[in-house]
Fold this protein.
Amino acid sequence: MRQILKYFTNYKTETVLAPLFKLLEAVFELFVPLVIAGIIDKGIPTGDKGYVGRMFAMLVLLAVVGLICSVTAQFFAAKAATGVSTKLRSALFARIEHLSFRQIDEATTSTLITRMTSDINQVQSGINMVLRLFLRSPIIVFGAVIMAFTIDVKSAFIFVITVPALAVVVVTITAMSIPRHKKVQGALDKVLGATRENLAGARVIRAFRREENEKKDFEGRTETLYNLQNNVGFLTSIMNPATLIIIDTAIVILIYFGAIRVDTGVLTQGQVVALWNYMSQILVELVKLANLVVTVTKALACAERVGATLKLEEEEPEEEAAEALKTDPNAPAVEFENVSLTYNEGAEPSLKNISFKVNCGDVVGVIGGTGSGKTSLIHLIPGFYKASEGRVLVNGREVSEYTRADLRNRVSVAMQKAVLFKGSIRSNILKGNKEATDKEILEAAKIAQALEIIEGKGGLDAAVAQGGKNFSGGQKQRLALTRALISKPEILILDDSASALDFATEAALRKALSEKMKGTTMFIVSQRTSSIMHADKIIVLEDGEAVGIGTHKELLKTCEIYREIFLSQFPERAGEIDG
């Protein structure tokens, strides 16, 4: 919760004025029963219409002033709540942008989306309600008790007994509700995760006719959410009837003893009505307080979840002002020393004891079966994940020694899944280098075989739909490769980024890369041996282990797995092995 409080810094005035005006409204409201009592006891019995008129004008004045105070308080409360939630959402988004791949994997995308949307909305509602009612309701309750004492001490003791009884009910239900609201938000995460997964994989689900299975799975998740919400809803719904029973009982007792005291001449009818009005005010405020408790309970649970994300330490600390790290020009471009990688504690290692060196300007192919650890291997080079054991060095320095900015300037990655953002072709490519000129963009596009895409779409300002849905898979891959090339990196990683290209386009891409990117160290991850057979070094992975490292010809003779992959793709070239 402390993580949230600092976002109130720019809204100190609003957080003071909102409850202050609500406090004024409450004070004016406390005078209303006394004015009504005066009308009943003085104006009506004597038939003094002038007095009744003056008191009626007083009631109107109190109502108008109270309304002005209420609207003003609402304005400041809304301004503070929306302002804080805006800053909180911006801070959360910035924190998520700086989370490491491992942290995002652990948090899960659906949970982060829930915290950005539903959780912060709940926090906003909580702030608004607290600023409006946190002072008003207690002031009305305790003010009504004090005013009751000014009317009749014995009758006021009914208030003294009633208020603590109500406090016990509210506190007990609140304490029981908070952990249940956390479970509800957790279940909501799972429902959102299932929804997101189904929307992303709608075509796959339909292709394999898995609609009914997915419906059952989704129904199971929503049933769990329904049960949890029912449970917490039942608990919080007890609050209103419980407080009503206590208040109504107190009113019955108050009227009963009040009537007796009116008969004996101790109290007037107006005073009894005033006491009844004060008890009714307490009732109304406690109903509001009950709703406030429910809202604040949800808000606290959500604030804790948001705060937990904000507290995540940055695994890749940014140092914008730091100079580029001095490196050894004679050191290998990339070196792995007995590197192992485990994504989750207790899980099987994804990479095991891998060692190799890559000289500057070398082209390295990485090949292996599905799940062999190819992507895991190359994600260690730009520092997306930290090695569990061993060292990963770039230009003679450990990856952890670089700032994020410095390392990203040296290493550029074209991801396995090409992602485009809503905007234009230019804006997407400039994410790789915001200072690049149109000439440089077109040169990079020519190498990536994306020039014809740009020309066919009408130029660099052609629109890109969200997720690049107006481009084919091959087009997205070539534009993503252009984005990687535009930064002119020392190390270029192509993570199966040509899988959607036909053989002719891929061959043209390989030729352009070899001619135009001389001196750049390249890692090419591919399922096709044709993509890597001309590499200076090929790393063959199997179950996270490097089972072969060498050139194409060397591996054909020494590595059975590589030989099997090659023959499965080029059975007609079996003679090369024998030769």
